[in-house]
Amino acid sequence: MPVRALVAAADLFAIEENSLRVALARLLAAETVERDERGEYRLGRRAAAVQQQVRSWRRIEDRVCQWNGGWLGVHTGALRRESRATLERRRRALRFLGFRELVPGLQIRPDNLTASREALYEELVTLGLPTAAPVFSMAMLDGSSDTAARALWDGDALVADYRRSRAELEESEARLPAISTRNAMVESFLLGGRVIRQIVLDPLLPEPIVPAGELRDLVAAMRRYDKLGHSCWRTFFSHYRLSSVRAPVHSEPAPEVEALPAA
Predict the structure, then answer these.
(1) Which run of H or of E encompasses 112?
(2) Rounded (to 5) percent helix, strand, coil in the chain
(3) C-alpha 57: how far from its chain's center?
(4) Per DSSP, what are the bridge partners of residue 2?
(5) Helix (H/G/I), strand (E/B), else coil: 68
(6) Contact indicator for 181, 12 with CB cutoff of 8 Å
(7) pLDDT per position as a tens digit, 90-100
(8) HSE (CB half, 13 Å, CA atoms) of 258?
(9) What is the sign of the dihedral through the CA atoms of 118, 124, 125 and 131?
């Protein structure tokens, strides 16, 4: 994406051009974004692992299988003292895969993921887990530990969040065609982005911890909303000749989008 398109998009959210350029410089230094010979920006190598997680949201249910009552564990108690940045990457990795701390040094989650332990280990390491942290499975926990493990997640709160987000998507879906292109772009980006984040960070819990179908209904609603959101941004992408979203062959640029800053 060229910087002029980024500046125009930032203007939609009342982000000043100078603030955007400062942020880009910091992201470049952190290798979170890269710039090619044409001066166009794309996500960098340090963002690849997270981006892969984000892109998986449409197929999130393919990651789970029937739960037999077993657990996955990650032992972090023997890790040497870490820097704040390293510790944050480790926490991020465990959060992406839905792990919670049962006792100090032991992170667990239900063993209902389709990936093998080896694949999960590689995924966790790619996201920031130290290679020295072992990943293993447990056939069962003792009674009190099993009860404590299931209580690490608030199933009722998760279901309430699924339903709340689904209602917000449906309300916005009905509202977007009636508001200005500019407002529709902003609303679809903010709401869609928040719900995608919710889906990507979902712990993917099995029954009986969370009722089946609630997450599936939210993902289905988000798929519909995603198509609508892309349609709100088509003219913008067409105007800046960006290929990420194809504009209809006979679409005409909306005046509001034409008026966006092109610097």
Answers:
(1) none
(2) 55, 10, 35
(3) 7
(4) 40
(5) coil
(6) no
(7) 999 999 999 99
(8) 4
(9) negative
- Nearest CA to 204 out of 147, 260, 162, 232 is that of 162
Per-position b or e across 32-54, b if 16+ CB within 10 A of its CB: bbeeeeeeebeebeebebbeebb
Q: How far apart are CA 192 and CA 176, in angstroms?
A: 12
Phi then psi for residue 244, to 5 deg, are -65, -35
Q: How far is CA 254 from the centre of its chain?
A: 30
Structure tokens at 91: 């926490």
Angle (deg, nearest 10), helices 214-239 and 3-12:
120
Could you report the per-residue pLDDT of 148-177, keeping only the tens digit for each? 999 999 999 999 999 999 999 999 999 999
Total residues found in the chain within this entry: 263
pTM over 0.85: yes
Cis, peptide link before residue 208, omega less than 30° from 0: yes
Whole-angstrom distance, CA of residue 248 vs CA of residue 159:
37
Give the span between the Cα atoms of 125 and 96, in whole angstroms.
12
Residue with token string 């800053």: 261
Token pair 């995608």 in the structure block, residue: 196
The CATH code of the domain at 64-150 is: 3.30.70
Instruction: Give per-residue burial for 170-181: e unless 16+ CB within 10 Å, then b.
Output: eebbeebeeeeb
Domain map of the chain by residue range?
3-43, 64-150, 155-258
For 48-74, what is each residue's pLDDT tens digit?
Answer: 999 999 999 999 989 999 999 999 999
CA distance 101 to 33: 32
200 touches 56 (CB < 8 A): yes
